[in-house]
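Thread: calcium ion complex, take 2
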Amino acid sequence: MAIQSNHSTMKALTVFIVCLLALLAKLHCAAAEQPPKLNVLLIMADDLRDYGGAFTRDVVKMPNLDRLRARGVTFERAYVQYPVCNPSRSSMMAGLRAEQTGVANNTTRLRQMMPDVITLPQLCKDAGWQSHAFGKLYHLGGGKDAVQKALWADTGRSWHTAQDYVATQVGRRMVEGRNVTGGALNWCAWGAADGNDDDQPDGQIATATMAMIKQLGDTPWFIGCGFMKPHDPFIAPRRYFDLYPTESLKRWRDPRDISPVPEKAVGFGAYGVAFGKFTDREWQELLRAYCAATSFMDAQLGRVLDELDKNKLWDKTLVIFVGDNGYHTGERNWWNKDTLFERSCRVPLVIAAPGFKGAQTSRSLVEFVDLYPTVADFCGLKMPHAAAGTSLKPILTNPAASIKDAAFTLVTRGSKLHGQSVRTTRWRFTLWSDGQTELYDHDTDPEETHNVAQANPAVVAQLEGRLKTLPPYKVYLDNLRLRDADGSTTPIWENGKDTRFRSIADSNLFTHISARAVPSSEAGK
Ligand SMILES: [Ca+2]
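Output below.
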């Protein structure tokens, strides 16, 4: 009996060892078969309004963005979560809404609010990608202080290296140009510059990006290429101004019966006063410079795309082109961003991924918080925290798919007032914290010129309900506490942990995300 038992044990052990070896061999094969790491090229433009809109489609020449669009999906309804540089970029890089990051201005760094958040480039960097930033990816802060600058760029955390650029002496010489406000607004200037592309920061940013792409060879990389135009001052080498004879450009005119809105919505402060004094000629001047700066940026984009061509990288690189906020070029007498109107909230977004069909257009509502989970999805990386958005991969698979039925944007007006806006396929509804509302019907009014809130109480009630699904916006206080609407405060950190991550996981952020695919006829509405 004992011998037989031993025999059985040996047999079982042999079977076990054989199975174990087979399993190990399988695992080894699986590891060997793992797809290679995709490169990620994140190209950002600054203050570039949506080229899909009425103005840019007809006016601005962007042949290189068209080249990228031919290789990817153009998202015609992409919305930022806060239409200003730093809050928008912080939200995108954290994959969290501005209500969650608490970053709602250009003076607070993301890490001041969320020191331990794993940012998008950091997610790849920590997983073995080489991560490098050229130009403006995060907001460029810190002035000339090297330590502060590195903190703003998040060097060492998001990136192995981050470099910003300034114009050369030649590039600072203006052949033509002026401040259109006579100096009242120091940023409101344009200039046709002497020198070549590389005398301007964006030319240098393209050159450095191209050099790094070449240098890294087969090493997987995440490269941020952050162009600084067409952001003010509206400067470009002179030849880009030649593309736009002033007479060829028409200034925007609001309809005479446009609904008035309160100053907090648009037209606020010294900006509104200065724009109110513009002549037709001055609107045209600014428009021309904005177009020239856009074309200049587009040319630099083209140089970077050439480098992908040259190194045959399209089949191993995920290319994402984004703006960071939209821009009014005269709508509602506004020359800027920072409003809750479509012009300010809607932004360019193009994604080209290996193996997916190009020259596609998506009409699905998408948000910038969707970019983080999209990159994580394509790179096979796990989200390090609960995502506020959802991967856009289903849209690359089927451009007629719709992944969500609402997009949300926040703005603040000082520490006591803020507005939240929701865009659905038909409506834009804005609710200010003082109770004022705006409702625009995109079926009949794509430029949002008529507030129809009073005539549509049921729609207002429904969309107000959607805004309540957002995490509430809380004002950040210097002693690391958040102030609630009722005046009470809560600490951001408790026992060394960021309390917002707990609330993110518990919140009902996901109620507006639907993974359903809808027929293209419905998605196209
Ligand atoms: Ca910007």
